[in-house]
Amino acid sequence: MAAFPHSPNTAFRRLRGSHSPAEFAALVRRAAREIGETVCCDARYIGRVESGEIRCPNYAYERVFLHMFPGRTPADLGFSPRESVRGRSGRRAVAAPPVPSHPVPRSKESDVLRRAFMAGGSATVAAATLGLTPLLGDSRRPPSRAGAAEAAAVEDAVRQIRLLDDRHGADALYRRAAEPLCAAYALLDAGATRQSTEDRLHAGAGELAVSVGWLAHDSGRFEDARSHYAEALATARVAGNPALEAHAFSNMAFLARDCRRARESVRAAQAGRRAARSLGSPRLLSLLALREAGGWAGLGDRKSCEEALTRAHTEFARGEAAADPEWMSFFGEAELESLESRCWAALGEHARAARHARRAADLQDPHFARNVAFYTAELAGDLANAGAPDEAAWAGGRVLDLLAAVQSTRISSMLATTARTLLPHQRSPHVAEFLARQAAL
After folding, report:
1. Which pLDDT tens digit goes with each residue over 314-323?
2. Buried b (16+ CB within 10 A) or exposed e, 89-100
3. Per the record, which residues fall in region Disordered (predicted)?
4. Number of H helices, E strands in the chain
């Protein structure tokens, strides 16, 4: 049976007006912050709404849109009634494929996750990542054949884990996030009702493996991260998915740099660039050039590092594109500055690194506490190595304030390294205060 066709949402397109999809996505994110919501809106999401692929947004997006356009109803925005999209009657009306024996309550799950964002407790946050386990039921056996609902649940799990990581850091999430990953691969083993669904499952499971690998990476479990990234790469190659392959190589390059395997970092970044070449995403090519630059910096090859940085800036300046992967929503000017900062730090130019790290911290949306903490921790380390101990202590203290909400072994380790660098300056009151707080942590 053919897939039910999408009808373009012309009403929503009119509301966007003269803004580009990326500009409108930025307005959505700003409106979300105004009402205390968390949405990861980008140009691709706006495109999915306008094409009709998203017939009804989740509750968080709905609240944001109604805040942006007061006095309008969801129908005025071009959306279908929720019950016609997610309810049983809606599924019968469009003669959808048979519903699996363990359907996913997606709207309820989204609301649980929203409450987890607001609560902020690590136990609640960790539990909220289990959105895929209902697919397996009490027996943990997958349905006989996976359908569109399961594929959508895998995709939602990827998005929610990324959002939770941005908000809270990796430590509270990693162990629990392994469960939805196992569920996703169980669904792949079960097979799918259609080839298009199977393609979505491969892409979703691979992206979930990258996300869980990142949680392991950020929490200092490097061998676990290496295994998850390799699993994602294998999934990409089995499915013939160059976008997933590029993502896996990007993270493998990042991990190799952190493990001080600089030559491997360069090779992985270059392999990612080959995979990404035909995808039409300058921003992805920019990120991979930055990964390569980091590897060259680790090898002490300044000339090759500068050449890769030049490529990165050239590709970044070409702007966003419709082909930009959804996972790259984190990659803006702040991340570019941060990655360049790390290159100069590896080459021993700590004052120059500090300038880029400061710009990264200043540019980052404060809503994403994990990234603000990370960039500021980079700044503290660069300032300490550049001979500015009081400024380094100030930056380190700001990170300690943020760690009340963010749990990241990676960031804590960075602060510990900065503290060791500052020990010779402990007679300074500012440094002494930072060292005492860091020791207590």
Report:
1. 999 999 999 9
2. ebbeeeeebeeb
3. 77-107
4. 22, 0
Token pair of 3 as six digits = 């897939």
Mean pLDDT of the chain: 82
DSSP classification of residue 20: -
- For residues 414 and 383, what is the distance between their CA atoms, to the nearest angstrom? 13
Q: Residue 166: its pLDDT value, please?
A: 62
| pLDDT tens string 65-109 | 998 998 888 899 999 886 565 433 333 333 333 333 333 333 333
pLDDT tens for each residue of 164-191: 766 665 666 777 777 788 888 888 887 8
Close Cβ partners of 354 (under 8 Å, ≥ 6 residues apart): 341, 379, 382, 383, 386, 388
Bridge partners of residue 192, in order along the sequence = 146
Nearest in space to 369 (alpha carbons), one of 348, 334, 393, 399: 399
- Rg of the chain's alpha carbons, rounded to an integer? 22
Q: CA-to-CA distance for 273 and 286, rounded, in angstroms?
A: 9
pLDDT single digits (tens) 408-429 = 788 999 999 999 999 999 999 9
User: What CA–CA distances, in Å, run from 106 to 5, 155, 362?
Assistant: 21, 11, 36
Q: How many CA atoms lie within 13 A of 90 on its CB side?
A: 11
Q: 101-240 domain in CATH 3.30.70? A: no
- Name all contacts of 331-337 with Cβ < 8 Å and 24+ positions apart: 331/283, 331/286, 331/287, 332/363, 333/363, 334/359, 334/360, 334/361, 334/363, 334/364, 334/365, 334/371, 334/375, 335/287, 335/360, 335/371, 336/286, 336/290, 336/312, 337/363
C-alpha 88/C-alpha 275 separation (Å) is: 41
Contacts (Cβ under 8 Å, ≥6 apart) of 167: 38, 117, 120, 125, 368, 369, 370, 405
Which of 218, 274, 217 minimizes the C-alpha distance to 243?
274
Give ranges for CATH 1.25.40 in the chain: 101-240
